[in-house]
Write a structure and sequence with these properties.
The protein contains 8 helices and 11 strands. By secondary structure, it is α/β, with parallel strands linked by helices. The protein has a domain at 8-48 and 108-221: 3-Layer(aba) Sandwich (Rossmann fold). Strands 4-9-3-10-11 form a 5-stranded parallel beta sheet, with helices on both faces. Helix 1 packs across helix 7. The longest helix is centred in the last third of the chain and has 16 residues, at 185-200. The termini are far apart.
């Protein structure tokens, strides 16, 4: 993706290109809660809406939760390179459409991704300069187990499976830009939010800075 596309003017008056903000973690470590908190409190941040071949669940809305498509259409999107990342999970396909994300970045909006390490690797291959990644870790195995039980969403057998997978998922922590240990959700949120704010101020994202500085210089030369 080109870093020269025009973005929108930020609060400081400088045009900025958006970014892809990735949160990953083992199941139960807190990425979904942190994602929700970010979306509720940070202006200019929107959730990436994936396509999926699974059936729509009760309460889900097409276009808000997912875009529900069939396998044939999904494979066409993969073949046409219309997905930034995709994977097969429990016999269903999931993927991130490229165009809505690129449109948001060009407009200076940031896109939040709640994906695993494999999806993050695919994003980096296709859009490395636009990706800022954060890996969320639990403070201990015991805390992770307690959180999985507290959610009351899964059977004991499923929870054991998630705990076993967690070790392998944690092995990819070193592939991320930032690491946050979620011992306290409020403190973890402030850390993640601070990372996003700092990423927005990276020099390469401020595509209007050259014009802004020239304007300041002209004012000083009067």
């Amino acid at each position: 993706m080109s870093g020269g596309a025009k973005g929108v003017m930020a609060e400081d008056g400088v045009d900025r290109r958006g970014l892809m903000f990735v949160l990953s973690s083992p199941s139960g470590a807190g990425k979904t809660t942190l994602s929700r908190m970010l979306l509720e409190s940070v202006p200019g941040l929107e959730m990436s809406v994936s396509v999926t071949t699974r059936s729509k669940r009760k309460g889900e809305i097409d276009g808000r939760d997912y875009r529900f498509i069939d396998v044939k259409q999904f494979r066409k999107m993969v073949k046409a390179d219309q997905l930034l990342e995709h994977a097969k999970v429990f016999d269903n396909f999931y993927g991130t459409p490229r165009e809505p994300v690129e449109e948001a970045l060009r407009a200076g909006r940031d896109v939040l991704f709640d994906i695993d390490w494999q999806g993050t690797q695919q994003l980096r291959k296709k859009a490395k300069k636009d990706v800022v990644s954060v890996f969320i870790l639990p403070p201990s195995a015991r805390a992770l187990m307690q959180r999985l039980h507290t959610r009351a969403q899964d059977s004991d057998e499923v929870i054991q499976g998630r705990m076993q997978r967690a070790s392998g998922e944690m092995d990819h922590w070193k592939e991320y830009d930032h690491i946050v240990v979620n011992e306290n959700i409020g403190i973890a949120f402030e850390a993640v939010r601070s990372i996003l704010v700092a990423a927005r101020l990276q020099r390469r994202r401020l595509i209007g800075m050259k014009t802004f500085v020239r304007g300041l210089q002209k004012q000083l030369e009067k």
